[in-house]
């Protein structure tokens, strides 16, 4: 998938052999200017020269969204197995090991509890650096763990997606996570707990076609790519020209896939506003957070 080779939202200008912490300057892909890394980080990973969004890791995304010091990692201590002994361009076990070393993460998703402007939430955040943020058995289980915890504690559940879809290295087991997460979502319904789905660049394929599209409120971060198959495959299948804005945030909004498009600068405040709405409707005897 071309998406996996795209460097658009990665920190560019990195010599792969150098450690990321040693890099002081980043080159913006949009405006081509060199920008001081610290300044970019202080600016929510937005280019201070042109406003382009740099790619966010899961930890950076969490830091951006939650109240300082409130985050507690509650991810289950599990990691992917290789039941199919899959070998693609390289063995799956090797891809996993490299992804773990590169990201410092055990998995492609972090589940945690935190507060956002003092509202307690459970959130699950994907990391695209880890094998394209693809959903295998572990991500499916971590999302369900987050959902179960949110339902039990009656806290809103927030899913932040950055994913290329199902993890082909796990074959049918990865596709089964679509059904597993989609059915777990019902627990939130039963507990009358709101579910906010935040789609970032990119939210595609098996994740977009399951849990990411099942939020009570669906938000696209400005610049998000949202879709199922790639445009070339669709174009060849239906044999028609596609609109210029196909699979963009604006297209998703126009066609009702998301409820709103929010700039990264205002994302935390917008989520807090939505959370307050659910809390006040619950307190005023509304449909208990629905
Ligand atoms: Zn720029």
UniProtKB/TrEMBL annotation:
- What does the record give as cofactor? Zn(2+)
What molecular function terms (GO) are annotated for this protein? Answer: acetyl-CoA carboxylase activity; ATP binding; carboxyl- or carbamoyltransferase activity; zinc ion binding
Q: Show the InterPro entries listed in the entry.
A: AcCoA_carboxyl_beta, Acetyl_CoA_COase_Trfase_b_su, ClpP/crotonase-like_dom_sf, COA_CT_N, Znf-ACC
Q: According to its UniProt record, where is this protein located?
A: Cytoplasm
Q: Which GO terms describe its cellular component?
A: acetyl-CoA carboxylase complex
Cite a single GO BP annotation: malonyl-CoA biosynthetic process
Entry protein name: Acetyl-coenzyme A carboxylase carboxyl transferase subunit beta
């Amino acid at each position: 998938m071309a998406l996996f080779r795209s460097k658009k939202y990665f920190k560019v200008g990195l010599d792969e052999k150098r450690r990321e912490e040693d890099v002081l300057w980043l080159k913006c892909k949009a405006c081509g200017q060199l920008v001081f890394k610290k300044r970019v980080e202080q600016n929510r990973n937005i280019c201070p020269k042109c406003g382009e969004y740099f790619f966010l890791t899961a930890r950076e995304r969490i830091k951006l969204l939650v109240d300082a010091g409130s985050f507690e990692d509650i991810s289950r201590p599990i990691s992917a197995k290789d039941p199919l002994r899959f070998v693609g361009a390289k063995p799956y076990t090797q891809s996993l090991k490299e992804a773990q070393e590169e990201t410092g993460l055990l998995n492609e998703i972090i589940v945690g509890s935190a507060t956002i402007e003092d509202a307690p939430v459970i959130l699950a955040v994907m990391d695209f650096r880890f094998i394209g943020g693809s959903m295998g058995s572990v991500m499916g289980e971590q999302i369900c763990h987050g959902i179960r915890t949110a339902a039990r504690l009656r806290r809103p559940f927030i899913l932040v997606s950055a994913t290329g879809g199902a993890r082909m290295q796990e074959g049918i087991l990865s596709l089964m996570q679509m059904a597993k997460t989609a059915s777990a979502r019902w627990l939130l319904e039963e507990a009358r707990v709101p579910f906010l789905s935040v789609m970032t660049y990119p939210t595609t394929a098996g994740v977009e076609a399951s849990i990411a599209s099942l939020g009570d409120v669906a938000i696209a971060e400005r610049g998000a790519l949202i879709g199922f198959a790639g445009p070339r495959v669709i174009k060849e299948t239906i044999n028609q020209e596609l609109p210029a804005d196909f699979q963009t945030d604006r297209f998703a909004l126009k066609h009702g896939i998301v409820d709103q498009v929010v700039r990264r600068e205002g994302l935390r405040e917008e989520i807090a506003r939505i959370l307050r709405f659910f809390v006040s409707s619950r307190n005023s005897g509304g449909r208990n957070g629905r």
